[in-house]
Amino acid sequence: MIQLFIIIALAFSKPLNPKKVIYAINCGAPSNYKSPSGIQYEKDIQTDPETVVADYSLNSEVASQQIKYTREPEIYLTERHAYKTFSYQIPLQKEGTYTLILKFAEMYFDTKGKRVFHIKFGQQRVVEKLDVVAKVGKFASNDEYIEFEYVAGQVFHNNVLCVDAVQEGKLQVNLEKTKFDNPYIHGIVLYAGGISETDYEEYQYMKENWEKVINEEKVKEELERQKKSEAKVKRKERVKIRNDHLNELENEFEVDDQSQNVSAPVAKRGGLRNLITSPIGTAGLFISFFIGMQILKKLISAISNAKIKGTEKEFTETKPKQEKQVKEKSESSEKKNKTKDTKEKSKAKQQQQ
After folding, report:
1. Rounded CA separation 220/9 (Å)
2. Per 3-state DSSP, what percentage of the chain is helix, strand, and coil (rounded to 5)?
3. Torsional sign, CA 38, 133, 130, 48
4. Backbone angles phi, psi at 238, to 5 degrees
């Protein structure tokens, strides 16, 4: 029943399609990262000297915490924050509908109202008073899905023009500071398509049913473990069958040996294998190989000599025949010439008379 439930849940889940991800940044990370879902996150190349990187993977107490509502906890272990408003520039391509997914998780405060900030496209606010702890608590992912239209070099959010949102073909994403601590961010994903085409519904389901999702994942992992265990047992069974077959062959060898020499001692179990792998058996194999190579060498030499003699014999038999034919041809030619001379002399004699 549980297996059926998992199959149904997976069938209705809609993960983010990596092929439609235009751009992704692992904020604060010094290297690229490929998520389990196949999204390739680039390292953070933000050059603003007034921003700060926090790497929570270096803090064992924080890194050991389970981050809820995500299958990509590595994204939330690094962040970039600032003591002022700061921004990211996201390259845009052709015109169309896009969804910007901004990833947050509160790793420091555990009380709501401690950190609050705004998100803007250019001068236009698209998310106001974001308080991650108030929405999902501490050590939990809060992903903001923001759909927008990119038309004629301008960006529209909810049909409202976002002034100064595009500069040199890049979307200006501003994290606006308030009096409640500092703005921050963990990851950015630009997706080609509207929210309905993303994993938004799956993410909402995950937040509402986290314990159930965790149990499903545990059951799924257990099923995978059982499959691997069963496959391992089957491999061992196949090896055992092969070994049993080899032992049968060895027993047949022992019986045959005993029938030929009754007085010979009975070989121990595994005698054939032991004989082959023993020093004497190895030496015997080497000697047999050496003798075989010598025989093969002599055989090749004999064949080569036979071919040479055959060629010489053929040449010897052919040469007299050729000389005889030349001689006969020469004699025939001489006879013709003599006959011709005789006829000419006879003719000349008749003309004189």
Report:
1. 12
2. 50, 25, 25
3. negative
4. -65, -40
Residues 335, 338, 340: CA angle, nearest 5 degrees: 110
Give just the sign of the alpha carbon dihedral 282, 288, 291, 293. negative
- Contact (CB, 8 A) for 68 and 210: yes
For the whole model, what pTM was predicted? 0.62
User: Do the strands 40-43 and 21-26 form a parallel or antiparallel pair, or are they unpaired?
Assistant: parallel
Contact predicate 149/170, CB 8 Å: no
Encode pLDDT of 157-192 as tens digits: 999 999 999 999 999 999 999 999 999 999 999 999
Q: Which of 169, 165, 21, 142 shows the shortest CA–CA distance to 79?
A: 142
Task: Give the Cα separation of 175 and 119 in Å (integer).
Answer: 5
Burial of 230 (0-12, 13-18, 19+ CB in 10 A): exposed
Average pLDDT over residues 182-208: 96
198 contacts: CB under 8 Å, gap ≥ 6:
16, 99, 101, 145, 191
Q: What is the DSSP string of 298-351?
A: HHHHHHHHHHHHHHHHHHHHHHHHHHHHHHHHHHHHHHHHHHHHHHHHHHHHHH
Residues forming a β-bridge with 190: 23, 100
User: How far is the C-alpha of 233 from the C-alpha of 226, rounded, in Å?
Assistant: 10
Residue 184 burial class via C-beta count within 10 angstroms: exposed 0-12, middle 13-18, buried 19 and up: buried
User: Rounded to a whole number, what is the largest CA-CA distance in the chain?
Assistant: 156
Q: Residue length, the chain?
A: 353
Reported as a single tens digit per residue, the pLDDT across 282-329 is 777 778 888 888 888 888 888 877 766 665 555 565 656 666 666 676
Helix axes of 2-12 and 210-260: crossing angle, nearest 10 degrees: 120
Query: What is the C-alpha separation between 126 and 243, in angstroms, rounded?
Result: 70
| DSSP-assigned letters across all residues of 168-219 | TTEEEEEEEE-SSS--EESEEEEEES-GGGTTHHHHHHHHHTHHHHHHHHHH
Q: Quick check: helix, strand or coil at residue 27?
A: coil
Half-sphere exposure of 201 (CA within 13 A, CB side): 9
